[in-house]
Amino acid sequence: MMLVGGQDEAVAAWAAEQLGVQFVQPLSAIGVLDARGDLVGASVFNDYYRGGNIEWTYAGARSLGPDMLRELARYCFVQLEVSRVTAKTRRSNKLVRRLLPKAGFTFEMTQKRYFGPTRDDDALVFALFREDAGKWLRSK
User: Fold this and answer.
1) Range of the structural domain that residue 101 is part of
2) Reported confidence tier of residue 139, pLDDT bands at 50, 70, 90
3) Does position 67 have pLDDT exceeding 80, yes or no?
4) How many domains does the chain have?
5) What is the CATH number of the domain that holds 28?
6) How many angstroms separate the CA atoms of 89 and 58, rounded?
7) Spatial strand order in the sheet of 27-33
């Protein structure tokens, strides 16, 4: 897998289509390409406050592995200098609900019916703090 930057709008549009959501500018996005050069994953970062929080949305969860997490953590904590990354996922997304805690994210709260009218549409909110991302920032 390879990361691609500099194509924020195209990558964010792909992620929005995959997730059935809309993203509002300003944002930045990083795409994940497979060996054939096809877009298979996308990180969209928005609601960014220098030194504070950034909202992270990821589409293509099956393309998200340890190498990708390390690069995304470095981007957020080293390049953007935030102190936390916030991620939300649908209650029904069991894959991401298992993946985020393994990556050091801590469950914070539930936002009822955030994505729609049913319980499965609740948003589960997770946070990753700089001090908890140490293994992603140190490992190579």
Assistant:
1) 2-138
2) low
3) no
4) 1
5) 3.40.630.30
6) 9
7) 2-4, 27-33, 39-46, 53-59, 84-90, 123-129, 106-111
